[in-house]
Structures are given as structure tokens and as C-alpha cells.
Design goal:
The complex is a heterodimer of chains A (80) and B (820).
Chain A lengths: L2 E4 L2 E4 L1 E3 L4 H10 L4 E3 L3 E4 L1 H10 L2 E4 L4 H13 L2
Parallel strand pairs in A: 2-4, 3-5, 4-6
Antiparallel strand pairs in A: 1-2
Helix pairs in contact in A: 1-2
Chain B lengths: L2 H26 L4 H18 L5 H18 L7 H24 L6 H13 L8 H18 L13 H11 L4 E6 L12 H6 L4 E8 L16 E7 L3 H7 L7 E6 L2 H4 L8 H12 L3 H22 L7 H18 L3 H17 L3 H30 L10 E2 L9 H7 L21 H18 L1 H11 L4 H29 E3 L1 H4 L2 H12 L3 E6 L4 E3 H22 L3 H6 L6 E10 L2 E8 L6 H10 L5 H6 L2 H5 L23 H10 L3 E7 L3 E9 L4 E9 L2 E6 L3 E8 L3 E4 L2 E6 L2 E7 H4 L13 E9 L2 E7 L1 E9 L13 E6 L5 E5 L1 H4 L1
Parallel strand pairs in B: 7-9, 14-23, 18-20
Antiparallel strand pairs in B: 1-3, 1-4, 2-3, 2-5, 6-8, 9-10, 10-12, 11-12, 13-14, 13-21, 15-19, 16-17, 17-18, 19-20, 22-23
Classes of the chains: A alpha/beta (80), B alpha+beta (820).
Chain lengths: 80, 820
């Protein structure tokens, strides 16, 4: 499971596949104030990225992968 | 080639054939639901199969076809000529792809655009609500063309990139070719297994990328996770081909635009401002000591090449010298990564080689010398910079992607998972029919042929056992065994013939399409009737028939059938009827092609033949209408006034005849002016076993193919008359010329008559006439497997081949056409 949810923190790790997007959306709908830990995340399926863009959660830790971090930051900029 | 692919290709051919057939049927009955369903099923199968391989070009076209037919099936769209035309086009394209795959096992990336066009043409037929993709892509292409128009003004979209990033990219790629990629995934792309973000992260030569929203995202409570609303914009330094290859699965969602690197400096257009020039100078300045040395060496290399090219003598090795210089320059261009210059170099090289002058290479060198040095310098700098700051991330709204090749083993991981639902493998059923290579069947047939020959030796053995060794018991047993082996061998022969038998539908099936296309082209209305498609004949025979039949059908359509106006004027139905009929008659297959067109006028043919010198005046007078009409098979005769691309060049019908005669067939035409024409082709069922009649002459045995034997008669010597040098006799009121076989073969012996002084006359037919052949005696008729004469013997044209007899002796088969 590459999505883990503890109290008010959601941790994404490794590759987050398209099947998990629904799950991620539900979590973020239930816990709008959750903080995201993306440290160990290496790739997000586009569907997950879109969920993050819509929810705009607070990011506690950005991914260690610099490239992915750029993409996510970049994507967040695109949301007005 | 892997067997799966092989099977896919052969099945695809069958499928496309089926699709063409069904489309033809639909033409006649546009509302036949069964045919539409079948058509849909075929395209669907084909699409599914193509998905097994990585040929997105195929799948895309088939998918569009499937969608289109799905709509027709559900009544959302009516069948139309245009629909059939486009589907047929798409199938033709598909076959082209199949052929390409068969030859090279891959499809060239350049086909990708073509395939998108074909698919779009299909989708364009759908009602508007269903053409989202077509719409968006046409919109995009208009956008890209407007971008091209604005080329001189710049590329405003570049303003999205932070200035620092832009200038840095410019510093590195000032003399390169960059591509701007606008990628708009479809909304349903997640269901098709696409991960757009993954695709863009893997884009070759990615320099910069950004995410955009195609439309505002709904509030999180209403978000549809599986509907993609994102768009991507990318900047890449990779060559166009590589980008096409990367996006080959989704060319309709991607728009590539060529980018002038100068726009990076000034996105809104205009000339290169001095500031950017400074930036470039700065980067040149940062070259360290080593690099400066290298630059001097490079400059020396280029100067040396220039000096070589300027040499004014023209030695014999001029071409070699030019090639050598070009090779050095090409290596140089590759080293500094200037692909555009390299491609231009190739053109310059071929020009130089063609003219044997070095000036075009020289021009290239002068043009690119500065650029090559500059590129070299800037690539050095950029390399150093990227070493210093590998991940430079604070570029505001958008950012540069440091390295796109960081190890995301996404694809591999997806494969590692355990796969469930493989139940289909548990109950594997074997296919009912086998596909066997023809060579194997041929070998089997040859072996059976040998078995038949060697089994025929047994009766001789039995005879010897009795006559020579006097053991009658053994003789009888051998004969008993022989009859059993004989029966089995006969059955085997029959069975192998059955294997080689094919129905004529194999060649008939292509006629509906052929007739449709030709008649459309000629503006004629033609109704094609096919009869006896299940008639069978040997594979070789069927195959040899294919080309002649196409010739005949074309001729009938072009010359035979009239245009609707003329037909109406003559009181015939507007649509002409072309019937192709196959039937088995005894041991021959007869194929007739009938049309109800204007027929062949024997007088016209006779006159033409006389004008062309094919017949002399006497023949012109003597010839009856039936013979005259058959003159169309003579070489060099064409009655069409105008040579069209279909027929009328005077070749064709004689080719038909020679092709038919090659397999021991005959072709005959009968025609009635104003009513129509019938062409009858008669072919043996099988070529393997030839029926020959054994004859004896001067104590030697010869074989005469039964095809040529008309009858055998005994003629009393007194009934023959000599007219000048030739011998004749009167047979049932007809004068028949006689020739002795001995004489024809150069044997000096006289023919022997029987006790009643009667001569044995074999009445044969060859070359359009009948002739009596005087021989010594007749023997039985046998089936032999005829082998052609090889090596030195092949020049003996009086024999068409040889066959091995049961007693081991060789039987020579006479070639009647040559001998007479």
C-alpha cells in the first residue's frame, strides 16, 4: 500500500498508481486539513496529481525526487 | 518472426478479405443487420488481435473503424458509399502496415501521422457528438498552423518559462532545433491505461515542462477522479523522429511545433537583443583552460578541412577525398551535437559527389564553422553549470526538469504483479484446421508419386517369379499383396490431392472489389454474379488461374459492357451483368466468364488481324466467325480505339492463353454481336497425374497426353491418298491430313500395318487443328507422374517430359504442339 493514513497525516510512498486515486480522493475529502508526506514518493499517476491539484492539501514534506517535486510545485502553481 | 505474429498476419489478411466482402454485400443490401454485425465483429477481432502487438498505428485505425461500425450497428449512422470507401481505404492502409511488419517486423514511426489521418477520416463520418478527438485535434492543428504564421513574430507561449531558464536553454541550444510540445490527453485517457505525467516525464530531451488545466477543476467533493482535465506543455531538444516515436500511441493528442531558439530570448518576437548576445559572450568566457586548448584544436581541424577542399587539382581520387573530408566534418558535428548541421552536411556531400566539385561542402563549412565552434563552446559551459547545480528548482511558476532519466521503474513494477483470471488457458482446445507449409505437402506428394511407380514394379516381379523361377504360388501371393498396396496407394494419392485442392472462391473472392472499383472508374453499372464458388481444383491450377481471370474480367468491363446510356438506348437493362461461373466437368474444371455487353464483331477482328499482319489474305477469306473471334488471343491484337490504363495495349489476351496453356488448359471464346461474350477456360483438375495413351512406333513406346487424343482409328492403306507430298484420308466425310510419327521423329523405318493391311491412326488435336498420326500400334492408357526434362535434355522440345514406368523403363511423353 503506497498510501498510508495516520491521524492527520497522509503518507505517499513509491509509485502511487491509478487504482489508488479514488482512495486518495476519499481520504482528502474526509480530512481536508491533513498534511501530506511525499518524501519517499517517486511517481504519482496523473489521476493522483489531479486529485492533489483539486484538494491543494498542505505539504509537510516534498518528495526527495527533485524532478517530481518540480512537477508537483509546478502543477500547484497552475491552480488559481 | 515469432509464430504469434506470423499467425496474426495471416489471420489479418483473411479478416480484411472478409471485411471487403461484407462491405460489398452491404452495398447491395445496406440495411442487412446480420452483415453489419458480422462486419463489426471482424473489425473488432482485428482490432483486438492488433492490440497484442506494439503497433499502435494499426490499432488506432482499426479502433476508429470499430467505433464507426459500432454506430452503424446501433443505428446511429446509416451506411453510405463514402463510409464504404473510407473503410476500404483504411483496410488498404492496414494491409500496407501488415506488409511492412512482415518485411521488417516493425512499423516506421513516420506512419504514425498517416495512421492518425486515416483514423480521423473515419471519425469524421460520425455525427458531431462523437468526434471529440477529431474536433480537438483539428482545433489543435489550426492552432499550430496559426503558430507557424506567427513564426516571424515569436512564440508568446514561451513567456510562461521563467526568463533565467529560457536564457540558460538558449545558451545551450542556440544553434539547435527545439520542439514545443502541447499535449492534451483525452478525458478518458486513464481508462486506456495512459499516465500522461509518466509519458511527459519520460519525454526524450526534456528541457522544461508545465501542467495546465484544460478547464477549471470542480470542487473536491464533485471531482471525478478518472476524468483527465490536465494539459501539458513541454520543451524538448530531441529530434522530431524521436518525439514521434515517444508519442506514437497518441499522435492525435500531441501537437509538435518547431521552435527557433531565438524566441527563447524574445518570446514576443523581434531581433536578438544585445542583452542576449552578452549572455552568450559571458558563457564563452567561462570556458576553462582545457576547453580553450580543445577549442584551438577544433579550429585547426576545421581549417585543415577547408584547405583540403580548396585544393584546386582534380585527382582521380577526388571522390574519396571529398568523402574523407565529409566524414571528418560529420564526426565533428556529432561531437558537438549539432544534428541540423549534420543533416545538411549529408546533402552537401551528395551534391559534391555528384558534381565532383568540392564547392558545396566548402559552402557548408563556411556557413557552419562559426556555429560549430559556438555550439561546442556553449555545450561545454552548460555541462559545467549543470555539474555545479544539478537541481535548480526555484524558478517560480515553472521550472526546469534537471534530468528526465531518473530511475523510475514504473513499467517493470507493473509487470511484476501476479496475474489472475487466466482461466482461458485451462481449457485449451486445439484448432480444427492446420496451416501447413506448401513445401511439406509437395514433398509428400512426390513421395507418393514414387510409391505409385515402385508399386507398379510388383506385377513384373510376379510375372518373373512365375515365368523365370516357376513358382506359381509366390507369384499369386505377390499379386495379392500388390492389389492391397495398389488400393492403399490409390487412396493415398487421392487423399493428398484432396489436401491440395482449393475452392475457386480463393480467386473469386477478389472479384467483387475489383469489379466495383473498375466499374466505378469507367462509370458503368455492373452486377456481378458468381456461381460455383465451391468448385475445387489443385492449388497450382487455381493459382495459375488468378491472373488470366483478372485480365478477362477487366477486358469484359472495359470493352464488353456498355455505359448505361448506350445500354438504355439499346433496350437493355442499365446495369450490365457479368457472370463468373465455375463447374466441374469430368476431370476438368471449366470456368466461364459471361457478359451481356456488345459482343465481339468477327469482321472487325478479322480486319484488325489482317492490318496487323497476323493473318494473310487467304486466311481472311477462309476464316469463319468462330475462328475469327478466337483471334483475340493472338499476340499484338487490340481492338480498343483508345489505350486506357485498364486495357487496350494489345497484351493481355495472349498472355491469358499462354498462362492457361502452361497448365494444360484451353481457352475458347464465343460471342454474339450485341448480345454478349462468353470466355470458357477449361483446366485439368490436377497437374500431378497426367493421363497418357501409350503408343508404339518402331518398337519403342511413347506417351501422348490424353488431352490431345481425339480418337484412334484403323485406316486401310488403300483408303489413303497422296496429295502432292502429303498423305490424307477421308474420315466420316472430312479430309484429314496424315503424318507418320516415325518421319516426324526422324526414324527411318516405315510404319507397320496389321494383318489386314490397316494403319493405326491416332487422331490428335493441337494448335487449333486435327491431324492423323500414323503409328505402329496402340497400348493402354495410364496415369503417370510427369517429370520435366532437365539439363541438356531440356532442349529436346519434342518431348514435354518423361515418366517412370512400373518395370523401371522410361517413357517419353510427346509434346504434340512441338511435334506437328
Amino acid at each position: 500500500m503506497s498510501i498510508e493514513s495516520k491521524k492527520n497525516a497522509i503518507t505517499l510512498s513509491g509509485i502511487v498508481t491509478v487504482e489508488e486515486a479514488e482512495n486518495l480522493l476519499e481520504l482528502l475529502q474526509k480530512k481536508p486539513n491533513a498534511k501530506l508526506d511525499l518524501t519517499a514518493c517517486t511517481h504519482l499517476h496523473t489521476a493522483n496529481l489531479q486529485v492533489l491539484m483539486a484538494a491543494r492539501p498542505a505539504i509537510a514534506h516534498w518528495p526527495d525526487n527533485p524532478e517530481l517535486r518540480v512537477w508537483i510545485e509546478n502543477a500547484f502553481e497552475a491552480v488559481p | 518472426m515469432n509464430p504469434l505474429l506470423e499467425q496474426f498476419l495471416s489471420e489479418s489478411r483473411e479478416c480484411t478479405q472478409g471485411i471487403s466482402e461484407k462491405l460489398m454485400q452491404l452495398e447491395k443490401a445496406p440495411n442487412d443487420q446480420d452483415v453489419i454485425k458480422e462486419l463489426f465483429r471482424l473489425v473488432h477481432t482485428l482490432k483486438g488481435n492488433s492490440g497484442l502487438f506494439t503497433y499502435p498505428e494499426m490499432t488506432r485505425v482499426l479502433h476508429a473503424g470499430e467505433d464507426l461500425l459500432g454506430m452503424v450497428r446501433n443505428g446511429g449512422l446509416a451506411y453510405s458509399q463514402q463510409l464504404a470507401d473510407r473503410l476500404l481505404d483504411a483496410m488498404d492502409f492496414f494491409i500496407v502496415l501488415c506488409n511492412e511488419v512482415e518485411k521488417t517486423e516493425k512499423i516506421d514511426a513516420s506512419r504514425s501521422q498517416e495512421s492518425a489521418q486515416v483514423a480521423e477520416a473515419l471519425r469524421a463520418l460520425m455525427p458531431v457528438a462523437h468526434q471529440e478527438t477529431a474536433d480537438s485535434s483539428s482545433h489543435q492543428s489550426s492552432a499550430s498552423s496559426s503558430a507557424a504564421q506567427k513564426a516571424s513574430q515569436g512564440f508568446p507561449a514561451l513567456a510562461r518559462i521563467a526568463e533565467a531558464t529560457r536564457l540558460e536553454i538558449f545558451g545551450r541550444y542556440a544553434n539547435d532545433c527545439l520542439h514545443w510540445i502541447a499535449y492534451t490527453p483525452t478525458r478518458e485517457c486513464f481508462f486506456q491505461g495512459d499516465d500522461p505525467l509518466y509519458s511527459v516525464r519520460q519525454t526524450p530531451g526534456l528541457l522544461w515542462g508545465s501542467v495546465k488545466l484544460a478547464q477549471p477543476l470542480p470542487p473536491i467533493a464533485e471531482l471525478d477522479t478518472y476524468s483527465c482535465l490536465l494539459q501539458f506543455q513541454l520543451l524538448s531538444s530531441a529530434p522530431r523522429e524521436e518525439l514521434y516515436e515517444h508519442f506514437r500511441y497518441i499522435p492525435d493528442q500531441v501537437v509538435l511545433s518547431l521552435l527557433n531558439p531565438q524566441w527563447l530570448v524574445h518570446p514576443e518576437g523581434g531581433l536578438l537583443p544585445p542583452a542576449a548576445g552578452e549572455a552568450k559572450d559571458e558563457s564563452v568566457e567561462t570556458i576553462s583552460g582545457d576547453a580553450a586548448e580543445e577549442a584551438a584544436a577544433f579550429s585547426a581541424i576545421l581549417t585543415a578541412q577547408q584547405q583540403i577542399l580548396q585544393l584546386d587539382d582534380h585527382p582521380a581520387w577526388q571522390a574519396g577525398r571529398i568523402k574523407a573530408v565529409a566524414a571528418v566534418l560529420a564526426n565533428f558535428a556529432r561531437l558537438v551535437g549539432d544534428t541540423v548541421a549534420a543533416s545538411k552536411l549529408e546533402a552537401a556531400l551528395s551534391e559534391s559527389l555528384a558534381s565532383r566539385e568540392s564547392w558545396s561542402l566548402l559552402t557548408w563549412l563556411q556557413e557552419h564553422q562559426q556555429a560549430l565552434m559556438a555550439v561546442h563552446a556553449s555545450s561545454e559551459t552548460a555541462l559545467q553549470r549543470s555539474v555545479q547545480s544539478p537541481s535548480n528548482t526555484d524558478h517560480g511558476a515553472t521550472a526546469r526538469i534537471p534530468d528526465s532519466s531518473s530511475g523510475v521503474n514504473y513499467g517493470r513494477r507493473a509487470d511484476d504483479g501476479i496475474k489472475f483470471g487466466r482461466r482461458a488457458e485451462d481449457n485449451l482446445t486445439g484448432p480444427r484446421s492446420l496451416k501447413v507449409d506448401q513445401g511439406k505437402v509437395d514433398r509428400l506428394m512426390n513421395l507418393i508419386g514414387e510409391l505409385v511407380v515402385s508399386k507398379n514394379a510388383l506385377p513384373y516381379l510376379a510375372q518373373r517369379a512365375e515365368a523365370q523361377y516357376g513358382v506359381r504360388e509366390l507369384s499369386r501371393e505377390i499379386k495379392g499383396q500388390y492389389s492391397i498396396i495398389n488400393r492403399i496407394a490409390d487412396e493415398m494419392q487421392d487423399a493428398i490431392m484432396q489436401v491440395r485442392m482449393m475452392t475457386v472462391s480463393f480467386i473469386f473472392q477478389r472479384f467483387p472489389r475489383l469489379v466495383r472499383d473498375i466499374s466505378r472508374k469507367l462509370g458503368k453499372e455492373v452486377q456481378l454474379v458468381l456461381e460455383g464458388e465451391q468448385t475445387e481444383a489443385d492449388k497450382n491450377i487455381i493459382e495459375s488461374l488468378a491472373d488470366p481471370l483478372i485480365h478477362i474480367v477487366r477486358n469484359s468491363l472495359d470493352h464488353g459492357l456498355e455505359t448505361p446510356d448506350i445500354r438504355r438506348a439499346q433496350g437493355k437493362p442499365e446495369a450490365g451483368t457479368l457472370t463468373i461461373r465455375a463447374a466441374q466437368e469430368a476431370d476438368r474444371v471449366v470456368i466461364s466468364i459471361l457478359d451481356d455487353g456488345k459482343g465481339i464483331d468477327p469482321e472487325v477482328i478479322k480486319r484488325k488481324a489482317y492490318e496487323k499482319g497476323l493473318i494473310d489474305e487467304a486466311a481472311l477469306e477462309r476464316m469463319d466467325d468462330r475462328e475469327a473471334v478466337n483471334l483475340i488471343f493472338a499476340a499484338g491484337l487490340s481492338t480498343a480505339e483508345v489505350v486506357s490504363d485498364l486495357s487496350g495495349r494489345g497484351v493481355g489476351m495472349d498472355v491469358v492463353r499462354s498462362a492457361v496453356e502452361k497448365v494444360n488448359g484451353t481457352v475458347l471464346v464465343t460471342s454474339e454481336v450485341g448480345k454478349g461474350t462468353e470466355i470458357r477456360i477449361s483446366l485439368p483438375l490436377s497437374m500431378a497425374v497426367t493421363q497418357v495413351m501409350l503408343i508404339e512406333s518402331d518398337h519403342q513406346q511413347f506417351g501422348v497426353p490424353m488431352d490431345h487424343v481425339v480418337e484412334t482409328v484403323r485406316v486401310p492403306r488403300s483408303a489413303t491418298r497422296a496429295i502432292k507430298q502429303s498423305l490424307t484420308t477421308v474420315l466420316r466425310g472430312r479430309v484429314v491430313a496424315l503424318k507418320t510419327l516415325n518421319h516426324l521423329l526422324g526414324i527411318t523405318a516405315q510404319p507397320r500395318a496389321n494383318a489386314d493391311d490397316e494403319l493405326a491412326v491416332l487422331l490428335v488435336q493441337a494448335g487449333g487443328g486435327e491431324l492423323g498420326l500414323i503409328v505402329d500400334g496402340f497400348r493402354e492408357t495410364i496415369g503417370v507422374i510427369q517429370k520435366p526434362l532437365e539439363g541438356f535434355l531440356s532442349s529436346l522440345t519434342v518431348y514435354s517430359g518423361s515418366a517412370l514406368m512400373g518395370d523401371g523403363s522410361v517413357l517419353m511423353i510427346l509434346n504434340m504442339r512441338e511435334i506437328l
